[in-house]
Amino acid sequence: MTTIAIDFETANERRDSACAVGLAWIEHRRVVRRESRLIRPPELRFAPGNIRVHGILPADVRDRPGFAAVMAEFMPDLAAGTILAHNASFDIGVLRASLHACGQAAPPLAYLCTVQVARRVFPDPAGCGLAKVAGRLGIRFSHHDAGDDAYACAEIALAAMRETETVDIAGLSRAIALPLTRIDGGPPPPPRPPRGPIAERALRTFRPAEPARPRFAVRGSTGNRYEVTLDERAGALSLRCTCMAGRHGMRCRHVKALAVGDVTDLLSDNAADLARVLGLLAAVP
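Request: output the structure for the sequence above.
Response:
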């Protein structure tokens, strides 16, 4: 049976905001394959705290494929084998939530958490976080790089197998009385409403002169607050910013970010309005 260690990094607090995945395959008591991919999350909203952890920026994933496309080649092995993850409730939660966000049903899965493995096989008052366990075992890796984290997770499981003199993950599970967690797959979630160009009549009813037209407050590089609004000049719709570059008619970095759905620096709580505006802009011939 295939055994794969997996690790996800996320853009923000949502479980369906995966921005990177790492995987490491175990066969014959060693790591035989490693893969890592960047993922474009459903919205390019990166929390500063998450960026500080993994260093991934919206620009790094803007042109990358989404979750379904990235994971398609890996899902058969994940569904048929045993998954390892360090703090597995998080990574399995990301996997299931992201599949549902793509409109896909999560398959039945079997997994083992290497945090729990380490607590039984390598207990230590300092704790069993990935970096701490790896450090005690002499595993060298770059923490919070998804590929390296998956590799370290796999090596922790292999070290536990050596310590317990077991030959596979099933034997390790039995030796330390830590059963595999099994979760059933569910039916596909209801399909999302299709997205497409907005009707021309709807476009014409949305005018910059409307009092209720959205305004997007954004944070500048020095912490200043600017406003980006939908503007119409010479019959063309565009986003305009109140920053210095925007006032001189330039397409500033704030506008460029919002135009691709990057809401990392959005201060106002109206990301849904941005999706509507981007639909309008996409519908303009």
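Confidence is low (pLDDT under 50) at residues 194-211.
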